[in-house]
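Lecture 7 notes: from sequence to structure.

We start with a single chain of 317 residues. Read the sequence below before looking at the structure.
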Amino acid sequence: MTAQSGTKAIIAALLANFGIAVTKFVAYLLTSSSAMLAESIHSVADTGNQALLLLGGRRAKRVATPQHPFGYGRERYVYAFIVAIVLFSLGGLFALYEAWHKWAAPHGITSWQWVPVTVLVVAIVMESFSFRTAIKESNLIRGSEPWARFVRRAKAPELPVVLLEDFGALVGLVFALFGVGMTLATGDGRWDAAGTAMIGVLLVTIAIVLAVETKSLLLGEGADPADVAAIERAVAAGPEVERIIHMKTLYLGPEELMVAAKIAVPRCESAEDVARGIDAVEARIRAAVPVARVIYLEPDIYHAEVEPAEASGRRES
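Now the structure, written as tokens:
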């Protein structure tokens, strides 16, 4: 994913959610609908989350330091994890609390009855444009990969986060419209509480999915099997390497992959030949997988008797 694609989707979502949050909160003040309050807080949380993603992207661009020699690329994962926490606590748990409160003391919507329905319909239209932008930017890199797999395997967290947030926002608006509509039709405020509870459960679920996926990125993920295979082919493509003894990969950030490998070189080569061969192998790796920017190759002489011990880590990544 290019940083530009992620930034475009984030800004579109931020502008949409800010406008929607203000509109929903005005509607809540006029109607006292718990679903409108839950949706207002939801949009406020989403707006803050997009600001956090932009901040994480900016901080990740800082140059490496002696204390952080591999740079700050993983800060994008840190801020994405914070987004999951905010969505869980400020969005999901607040909505569940508000639903419980409204269920215990239900009241209908007696004034400005047209306001919440109008606001929710307009919000659905605005959120749809934001969701469309996120889908369009994601499709530039997703290809034919299923959506669930794309969310699980994406190394850059911004687009999956925005996609899930926009999806949750759209479904939450439908839940709110259901609760408000049934309250207006029946005069029973418990329908409003039910819609609010559905919003809370939805947000908690999305937050848990985001937290699990981002936690995996924070712990450190290796390259996808296709990229591992491409790197292995690139290493073995020339006469400089007899075989890969073992290899590991690790994402230092969404767009920076580290490759570390022990390679067997011909016994008769001089140090100058080995150095020249390693340079050639590194060039092939970068051509095959452009995100492989940090490469460490350790030359060695292959000994068949140590193959089982060494080879156990060959395909780990």
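The first helix runs from residue 3 to 31. Keep this in mind for problem set 3.
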